[in-house]
Design goal:
Length: about 525
């Protein structure tokens, strides 16, 4: 299936970056969401999936003739296509229901928004109250802790998505942010000290990465400026987000979710992740309980809001498809069915290699004796696949035999007859591409195909010339993307309404600071 994008990847600028981080951070601890996640993700085709989740027959675009590496989640992504298409925002569909999320999340509570950039992380005591939400205080300590989490989150995002650095640097230019001489010196000294843990470590690092000392320095400064811009963006809207978090927590409690959230916390407390959280956060057990229960409450509040989001209509889906039809095209495709007799050469997440299996069965075997036994087992599996091929060549029903004898547990359970759907011929791994060339529709490849995962009996069930992708093939992806957008809009609309209904009060000191900043011509980032 094509990866369909119904709204463009958001540029990392101003509050939009902070808002996306906020929603992700709320959910990230329990694995419900990934912060900073892009709207479009390049996926590896996992169409040919054994019970182990191994991939073969279809290769990733980045590979030449090698099967994609096996992954644990491959079965859940079966029959996806590696190619992607970029679909612009369907404004005719969503414009009425899609207000600017950043604007909606800040402009309706301007005093809170203005105060966000006035919080000093260095000079203000932790106990100082910034504002209250229906009587519940948000303190400088709350602000500092969340700010630290955002810094760590940004660093992790820059590691996982290096392209974010460019976006942040561009935004820094727009915001006219620069590094001071003191900041530059501190960054370079810190980086070189980290590389010089051992003698000549920096020299070795430069040699291994084939960069000059000047390039190293520039990279360090670029990352420093990117992080400074991210911190600047966070400070512009963090207080609003803390208010939103408190609103979600209070809403969840009002719905009676407190006990359920505590039970979730108790489950999490028994996992290794809990110890990691304690070590990394520096929280006491009591503070950790408060934080984790609150995050569960936020998740439950968001889930409650999302339940009320209407599903995309057929008309909306068709409009998105029609708007982007010109971009939804595929190359020449082939449809295959297969029967797999497993003989993995490598250890997979859910299945050991043939060598490992033999070693466990006969631990005394070593060296040449082990090699001989493995070769013997490979021959057994090959003969089994050959026997199946001969049975089909004599008139056996391919689909029935696949459902009964294939080692692909997922396909057997689905009773799919080994069908893996249409695949772009340019994405087939070398072993498959060479063998299916010239095979007519309805014919079985006249020999067993060997890959690193085992032995395959393959039938060609369809061929298609290059052309448009049918609506049926992208409908689920369009539905998912539209639903994500509608859910986000629902949460933003809910929070906007709650801003109006809640008692949001700045502490007197901050009221005075906001008034003074406004009088002097604007707020100042600390």
């Amino acid at each position: 299936m094509k990866n369909v994008k119904v709204m463009p990847i958001p540029s990392i600028n101003g509050t939009s970056f902070a808002v996306s981080c906020s929603l992700g951070l709320i959910l990230s601890l329990t694995g419900c969401s990934k912060s900073g996640e892009k709207t479009e993700t390049t996926k590896t085709d996992t169409s040919t999936t054994t019970s182990t989740g191994a991939n073969y027959s279809v290769k990733d675009k980045a590979s030449t003739d090698k099967a994609a590496e096996p992954t644990k989640d491959a079965p859940a992504k079966a029959n996806e296509d590696t190619s992607t298409s970029t679909i612009p925002a369907p404004t005719t569909v969503d414009e009425k229901a899609a207000p600017n999320s950043a604007k909606a999340n800040n402009d309706d509570i301007p005093q809170i928004s203005a105060a966000s950039s006035l919080v000093s992380l260095t000079s203000m005591p932790d106990s100082k109250v910034i504002c209250t939400v229906n009587g519940t205080p948000i303190t400088v300590a709350d602000y500092k802790h969340e700010f630290k989490l955002r810094e760590e989150q940004t660093q992790a995002m820059l590691t996982a998505q290096p392209e974010l650095e460019t976006s942040l640097l561009n935004d820094a230019k727009l915001n006219k942010l620069t590094l001071t001489d003191v900041e530059k010196q501190r960054l370079l000294e810190s980086a070189k000290k980290a590389q010089n843990g051992k003698a000549d470590a920096l020299r070795k690092y430069l040699k291994d990465n084939k960069i000059s000392p000047e390039q190293f320095d520039q990279k360090v400064l670029d990352i420093g400026l990117a992080l400074k811009d991210a911190a600047h963006q966070t400070q512009q809207s963090l207080l609003v987000e803390l208010v939103d978090q408190q609103i979600l927590i209070q809403y969840a409690r009002s719905k009676g979710y407190a006990q359920k959230a505590f039970n979730k916390y108790m489950e999490l407390k028994r996992t290794p992740q809990y110890k990691n959280f304690l070590n990394q956060s520096g929280f006491s057990p009591d503070d950790a309980q408060t934080q984790l229960v609150n995050r569960q409450l936020m998740i439950m509040a968001i889930d409650d809001v999302k339940k009320k989001t209407p599903q995309p209509t057929d008309k909306e889906l068709q409009q998105v498809y029609d708007l982007n039809k010109a971009n939804l095209k595929h190359g020449e495709r082939i449809r295959l069915s297969q029967i797999i007799i497993a003989a993995p050469e490598k250890d997979l997440p859910d299945q050991a290699s043939l060598r490992t299996q033999v070693s466990k069965q006969e631990p005394t075997l070593k060296g040449a004796a082990l090699d001989a036994k493995v070769k013997e087992q490979e021959e057994v599996q090959k003969n089994k696949a050959q026997a199946i091929l001969e049975e089909i060549q004599k008139g056996g029903d391919f689909a029935k035999i696949a459902n009964e004898k294939s080692d692909d547990a997922i396909a057997k359970q689905a009773k799919s007859g080994g069908d893996i759907g249409y695949k772009d011929v340019t994405l087939l791994v070398k072993e498959f591409a060479n063998k299916v060339k010239g095979i007519k529709v309805g014919e079985v490849v006249p020999e067993v195909i060997k890959t690193e995962f085992g032995y395959h009996v393959v039938k060609v069930t369809g061929r298609e010339p290059a052309g448009p992708i049918p609506m049926a093939e992208v409908k689920d992806e369009i539905t998912n993307q539209l639903m994500q957008r509608k859910n986000l809009n629902s949460v933003v609309e809910f929070l906007t309404n709650q801003h109006k209904a809640s008692q949001l009060k700045l502490a007197p000191d901050f009221q005075a600071m906001v008034a003074a900043a406004a009088k002097s011509g604007g707020t100042k980032t600390n």
